Amino acid sequence: MFFPDKAAGFREALRVLRPGGRFLFSVWESWEGTVFGLACDVVARLLSCDAASLTAPPYNDVTAVREELAAVGFAEIDTERVQKRSHSGSPEEAAVVACHGGILRAAIETRAASRLDELTAAVAAAIAERFWPGND
Questions:
Q1: How open is the CA angle 105-111-117, to the nearest 5 degrees?
Q2: What is the predicted pLDDT for the residue at 46?
Q3: Distance from C-alpha of 35 to C-alpha of 93, rounded to nearest angstrom
Q4: pTM, whole model, 2 decimals?
């Protein structure tokens, strides 16, 4: 999902598979309405940028992914939607998970590394307001 040239990546995966081998991978569904999506929105607002610029472009259109796999030569393509819920002990813990690791952390480091704690606290407040029990 994160490699920039999907067709080249898929071709290489197909090339190195032994006959009958399988290429398994996952992509994230839309972040809209999720804790991570909220974290991106809060960070983007505080950094005065577009939330989409903080993360990799979405790559979750099943039809498009299937077409790209077929275009490079994959013949038997199966997809499965798997939904998992994550749980955090507090809004602060959820904010640290969102802001201190992975792709959002890289964006924060690039734009405003000195503001990591401030941004994390703002995200925690937004998570508490929108998602935490008792905050209807």
A1: 55
A2: 98
A3: 12
A4: 0.79
Q: What is the mean pLDDT of the chain?
A: 92
- Tokens matching residue 62: 């099943």
Tell me the per-residue pLDDT of 96-113, one tens digit each, with 9 for 90 and over.
Answer: 999 998 889 999 999 999
| Nearest CA among 57, 46, 54 for reference residue 120 | 46
Going from N- to C-terminal start, the domains of the chain cover: 6-131
C-alpha count within 13 angstroms, C-beta hemisphere, residue 120: 18
DSSP string, the chain: ---S-HHHHHHHHHHHSPTT-----------TTSHHHHHHHHHHHHHTS-GGGGSPPP---HHHHHHHHHHTT---------------SSHHHHHHHHHSSHHHHHHHHHHHGGGHHHHHHHHHHHHHHHHSTT--
Structure tokens at 22: 């399988």
Q: Please answer whether residues 114 and 38 qualify as being in contact, where contact means their C-beta atoms are separated by less than 8 angstroms.
A: no
The span from the CA of 99 to the CA of 29, in Å, is: 19
